[in-house]
Amino acid sequence: MASLARNAEASLSKLLSRPWNRASSRHQPPATVSATLTRKKPVEDATLDLNSIASQNLDHAHARRLVRSAFTHLQQQLDHPLYKLVPPGIRTEEWYEINFKGQEVFCKSWMPKPGVRIKGSVCFCHGYGDTCTFFFEGIASQIASSGYAVYAVDHPGFGLSEGLHGYIQNFDDLVDNAYEMFAKIKGRPEVRGLPSFILGQSMGGAVTIKLHLKDPSEWDGVILVAPMCRVSSFILIYLQFYFILNRLHEAVFFFSKQLNQVSNN
Asked: From what superkingdom does this record's organism come (predicted)?
């Protein structure tokens, strides 16, 4: 441990000794700091035309939709079990809805193969670095093969939905958007009146939790995968206090039992 501490201290001293880290220095940062401004690396196994499409600014939905359209065939050829083990007969549909802010929101569904009775609906909220049309494609197909209708939307500013890429001005806007979109989806004829479940991953887990708290009666179940949340410090204090009281109760019960045995003897 002592050697680790010395190494850490030496590394920190070396870092702080760089001229560009000193407030009084006029030196510019090393060239490596500006490496993020260099041109994007070309996509392997992609043509010059595809790389030209991929290198453009993806701040707005039009460019993101163009890239998605151009790379769909490459995505389906990825050497990954989620794509290689897709069950046959899954039906998909893509469309856009207009949300309360006037934005086009991308929606997609995965349905069981024809003739399979639908058991219920599963609505998916994706995470910050994701969309509903990448790896979730394979997951949705697996769930649909079990008899569930699966639906997902790209949050505004993500994937194929309108909005500045990755920009969230107000987190509650994501929640309100998902609430509105999923209300429309659950009213579709194929799932109306059936049990409905909501699945949230990472940031989408936080959206899912807030959606459920907004109206718990809307969902028959909630599924969270690595949700973006933490246990309140108040709850942690309460649990610690409960643990102490529980152990104290056990100790009092033990000594009471011992005293009863002594008195009986």
From this structure: Eukaryota
* Token pair listed for 92: 């998909």
Task: Give the pair of three-digit tokens for residue 170.
Answer: 């107000």
Mean pLDDT by 10 residues, the chain (265 residues): 41 37 38 46 76 84 92 80 85 98 98 96 96 90 97 98 96 97 97 98 96 94 93 75 74 64 63
Would you say 182 and 161 are in contact if contact means Cβ atoms under 8 Å apart? no
Query: Has domain 86-225 been given CATH number 3.40.50.1820?
Result: yes
pTM, rounded to two decimals: 0.73
Instruction: For 58, list phi and psi in degrees, rounded to 5.
Output: -100, 25
For residue 150, the tally of other CB atoms under 10 A from its CB is 27
Helix, strand, coil shares of the chain, percent, nearest 5, are 45, 15, 40
Listed by start position, the domains of the chain span 86-225, 232-265
The 3-state secondary structure of 135-166 reads CHHHHHHHHHHCCEEEEEECCCCCCCCCCCCC
